[in-house]
Amino acid sequence: MASTMPVPRPTVRSFRRTLARNGVPELRRAPLRELQVNVGRLCNQACQHCHVDAGPKRTEIMIWETMAQILAWAERTRIARVDVTGGAPELNPNFRRFVDAFLALGATVTARCNLTVLLEPGQEDLATWYAARRVHLVASLPCYSRKNVDAQRGDGTFDKSIVALRRLNDAGYGRTADLSLDLVYNPGGAFLPGDQVQLEAQYKQHLQDEFSVAFSRLLTLANLPINRFAHFLERTDQYDQYLQLLEDNFNAVTVPELMCRHLLSVDWLGKVYDCDFNQMLDIPLAGRGAQHLWDIDPTRLDGERVATGEHCFGCTAGAGSSCGGALT
Q: Distance between CA atoms of 134 and 326, rounded to whole angstroms?
């Protein structure tokens, strides 16, 4: 009778050991530059590559009381840059109030937008609302091909995204220097992103020629083997192969600018992590255990060890990957 026991997964060398083998010191935090806040996992989409595992049925939503405590911390620490994400962060009923409060503190705000949320009921004015506040937008468009986008994000998503991009262009985004609209490319499978500069040129030419759409920059992000993308890799028997690809393409040059060194990630309950990926894996700050943002003194984080795992190879492979795109 054939055994029903699971086949053990080959051990992937640890990220910390790979750093040491390449002569890179243990990963430690640098001075804090940015706060990233996930205001909930509710989303109007359920994308195949989503490491947040967001979707229309998620109920994790940050409440105003938590937001108020985060804002009090931000005022106390004078944080200069804030990145608001989700899910679709705009679906949090207090999203606009939250953004306005950060702006009132003098912080620069980035919002991560999936584009199609602009077509949701009650969001008809979202493009002009963003423009009036000069919010920096980072928007998901994993390809300039309708077929590829719809395969990753659902039928009809590409056409809705083009409608949303035109609304943003009409509001000035991607066409004026002070209204930045960055698009995000994610590979459609178990491979690394191509060259960011070359892909940006292709995106700009195709979107302008075919749809008269403009944007500011393209950011290339690798898919990390977390949540929904990890499930995809498991279903297609590519998990080990993909982890090996990431490890084989480790690039020590990416390490100084890894976002976990300069950023704090906050979940919908106000708990803190070294990065958004650690948040999704529930890996708290190294050596601290679960803590809320308002219990953290950011000046005492400098030099502390960053919590790492095999998923970290996704940020250091090839040209690197972060919330701000390629690292080299």
A: 24
Strand partners, 265: 36, 273
Residue 204 near residue 256, CB atoms below 8 Å: no
Question: What does the alpha-carbon distance between residue 98 and residue 271 come to, in Å, rounded to a whole number?
Answer: 17
Q: Report cis status (omega within 30 of 0) of the bond before 87.
A: yes
Q: What does the pLDDT look like over 249-302, one tens digit per residue? A: 999 999 999 999 999 999 999 999 999 999 999 999 987 878 999 999 999 999
Residue 77: φ, ψ to 5°: -95, -10
Task: Decide if domain 27-316 falls under CATH 3.30.1890.
Answer: no
Question: Quick check: pTM over 0.85?
Answer: yes
User: Of the candidates 173, 179, 183, 175, which has an alpha carbon nearest to the alpha carbon of residue 219?
Assistant: 183
End-to-end CA distance of the chain: 52
Burial of 182 (0-12, 13-18, 19+ CB in 10 A): buried
Contact (Cβ atoms closer than 8 angstroms) between residue 34 and residue 81: yes
Helix (H, G, I), strand (E, B) or coil at 36: strand
Token pair in block for residue 206 = 């195709």
Whole-angstrom Cα distance, residue 328 to residue 233? Answer: 26
- Identify residue 159 by its one-letter amino acid code: D
Rounded to whole angstroms, how far apart are CA atoms 172 and 149? Answer: 24
